[in-house]
Amino acid sequence: MGRLPSPSLPLFSAGGWGMVAALMKAGSPAAFRRLCNEIGTVDAVGIEERVAKYATRSVKQASKVAGLKLVVSMVDLTTLEGKDTPDKVASLCQKALHPHAGLDVPPVAAVCVYPSMVKHARRALGADTAVRIASVATAFPSGQAPLRSRLAEVKAALADGADEIDMVINRGAFLAGEFQLVQDEITAVRDTCGAATLKVILEVSELETYDNIRAASFLAMRVLRPGDFIKTSTGKTLLNATLGNNQVMLEAIRDFYLETGIPIAMKPAGGIRTAKQSLHFLIAVKETLGDAWLTNRRYRFGASSLLNDLLRQLEKEKTGTYQAPYHFSEAAESY
Amino acid sequence: MTRLPITKTPKVYVGGAFIRSESARTFPLQDAAGNFFANIPQCTRKDLRNAVEAAAKAGPGWAKRTAYNRGQIIYRLAEMLEARRADMGDALAVGGATRAAAAKEITATIDRLIHYAGWADKYEQVLGSVNPVASPHFNFTVTEPMGIIGLLAPDEAPLLALVSLLAPVITSGNTVVALASTARPYPAIVLGEMLATSDLPGGVVNLLTGFRKDIVPTMATHAHLRAIGGVANAAERHTLKLGAVESVKRVKLHPAEEPVDWFSAKAQGLYEIRDFVEFKTTWHPIGA
Predict the structure, then answer these.
(1) B49 vs A335: CB contact, 8 Å cut-off?
(2) CB under 8 Å to A240, separation ≥6 — which residues?
(3) A19 inside domain
(4) Residue-wise DSSP of A2-17
């Protein structure tokens, strides 16, 4: 996971143009090395050891309840399926506003839907609401559409009432070493967003190494505004948010903040299903970025099934008895 | 060259894996002669919770299998026990059983498994029914598994009683979280090793060892457990019934004060299966 191997031959030597093409395909080591010289590389073993410790903290009951409620307020309640219907989005919005009766929990931070569902979410939530509407625009999840149509998608989502736009970066361009192109596309989306918050999905599982994740984080952060997000994943690939990926990005945010004073927000997404996992992520935030990031303006969880487990554990803490998942809404499991 | 003795670390079978207690606690087990034998996992309420999660994961797949296939798998478990009679005999001897008594208990256990393997694709025909109704409808009653069942095994016949309790429960597609005998836990540990090689999907049977006082109160109140079975004394029955009221679960307990003869044919049969199924009645209009 360390540095990519440096090219053994100068670009224009005996290998000729074929060699240049091969190197470009392998990820343009020269451009990558220039970037890494500026931002530093990641100690992969160190990261793994660091995050392994987060799961060993003893969290006592009062802190656990406070933590779980904080996580509820940070959830981007998500439904991104081909089978989404307006009614399903409407019930998701109800759940976002009132997660569970009798638990004294706040509404979630946002609902996250496809652009075509934004208007239905707006109708369900109303204009004056604590819950924001996020929409995955820009040819989610692949991002493989012409920039023109990606920007049109962003505009359409905003026109329908989206408060936040989750965009995917051009991984193909990133891996080909065309960093300027990646950045220019983020800038174009950012300018289209206007006042709306932008979240940049790096899709870490397709970036393959921690060094690449750090590099992509910096590419994005350099063109983001304070309060915009970098986000791990689309949730549509096999590997999603892990404590390791999260840590690499948190440390990138920390280093960028110390360098520039610009606070960038963070959103892990995909694969965080249990309340216990979410507390491990909170511990990572607390110990890497501090209390200033423990708010839903600076940290979010992109998740669909996490909320039910949070409610289940909060109910357990309230009553002292373990709960069955089917007592909470949207748990289709009947066993 | 002298060889170092290789002693076994007993672990409990939960979710298809062999684990230590989440608490990292153990309790020492003495063999029949009073010598230290091994440290047995002292499972806690959190181990129970984890076992229930494992059972919940395995449940839908197990219930969806055909009755015939469940029968085959229970038969396979009997085969595993038959092939490893010697191991199980040693395990029972740790608890003080004589060779003859151990052999008798193992034979009875194998026969019990075969009994329920046979019932697997037959109980539905006896328990289900087509009901006479005074309207143009087919009206029929079928059984469904309840879900996750908590079981408390007694100290007597530590293998036979445990298997007699869990076999009818899994026959109908339920999953089990069982607490083995506290005084004689070792046969349950060895049984777990046989379950692991019996084609039974991981998580269908989860065996815990430890103390009843750690497990019973949580078993009583855990809302995801649909029923409680096994053997319990008066105080435990009281706790279990109170908890069951709150979490709306079925309680089918044998009083510890009236020991069950687990070797008897009365300790097996259709009614043991019926104790842990739900009945569903369907009305279906008769076509012209």
Answers:
(1) no
(2) A205, A232, A233, A269, A270, A271, A272
(3) no
(4) -PPPPPSS-TTSTTHH
| Closest by Cβ to A321, choosing from B63, B148, B222 | B222
Nearest Cα residue to A163 out of A330, A310, A296:
A296
* Contact criterion met (CB below 8 Å) for A302 and A295: no
Residues A19 and A202: beta-carbon distance below 8 Å: no
d(CA B61, CA B77): 18
A149, amino acid identity: S
Specify whether A166 is catalytic.
Answer: yes
Residue B151 CA to residue A34 CA, distance in Å, equals: 64
How many domains is chain B built from?
A: 1
- What is the domain extent for residue B83? 12-29+36-285
Residue B120: inside a domain, yes or no? yes
The answer to whether A284 and A246 have CB atoms below 8 angstroms apart is yes
Q: Is residue B100 part of a domain?
A: yes
Q: Which domain range does residue A264 map to? A: 46-320
The pair of structure tokens assigned to A52 is 């392994």
| CATH code where residue A227 lies | 3.20.20.70
∠ CA A258-A261-A265, nearest 5°, is 90
Note down pLDDT in tens along chain B; length 288 residues. 889 988 889 999 999 999 999 999 999 999 999 999 999 999 999 999 999 999 999 999 999 999 999 999 999 999 999 999 999 999 999 999 999 999 999 999 999 999 999 999 999 999 999 999 999 999 999 999 999 999 999 999 999 999 999 999 999 999 999 999 999 999 999 999 999 999 999 999 999 999 999 999 999 999 999 999 999 999 999 999 999 999 999 999 999 999 999 999 999 999 999 999 999 999 999 876
Catalytic residue among A163, A166, A211, A228: A166
DSSP B175-210: EEEEEPPSSS-HHHHHHHHHHTTTTPPTTSEEEE-S
Burial profile A115-134: b = 16 or more Cβ within 10 angstroms, e = fewer: bebbbbbbebbeeeeebbbb
Domain harbouring B225, CATH code: 3.40.605.10
ipTM for the predicted complex: 0.83
Q: Does B142 contact A at CB distance below 8 Å?
A: no
Tokens for A116?
Answer: 């075509």
Q: Which amino acid is at B80?
A: M
Map residue B101 onto helix, strand or coil: helix
Which are the contacts of B85, defined by CB distance < 8 A and separation ≥ 6? B103, B106
Of residues B49, B60, B63, nearest to A322 (C-beta): B49
Distance CA B147, CA B55 (A): 9
B23 touches chain A (CB under 8 A): no
The span from the first CA to the last CA of chain A, in angstroms, equals: 42
Which H/E stretch holds residue A250? helix A243-260
Between CA B232 and CA B247 the distance in angstroms is 19
Give the C-alpha separation, A291 to A277, whole Å. Answer: 19
Contacts of A321 in chain B (CB under 8 A): 221-223, 243, 246-247
Sheet containing strand A265-267, edge to edge, reads: A265-267, A229-231, A197-201, A164-168, A132-136, A110-113, A75-78, A301-303
Q: What angle do CA B102, B106, B109 make, to 5 degrees?
A: 140
Residue A325 DSSP symbol? G
Q: How many independent structural domains does chain A possess?
A: 1
| Any domain includes A326 | no
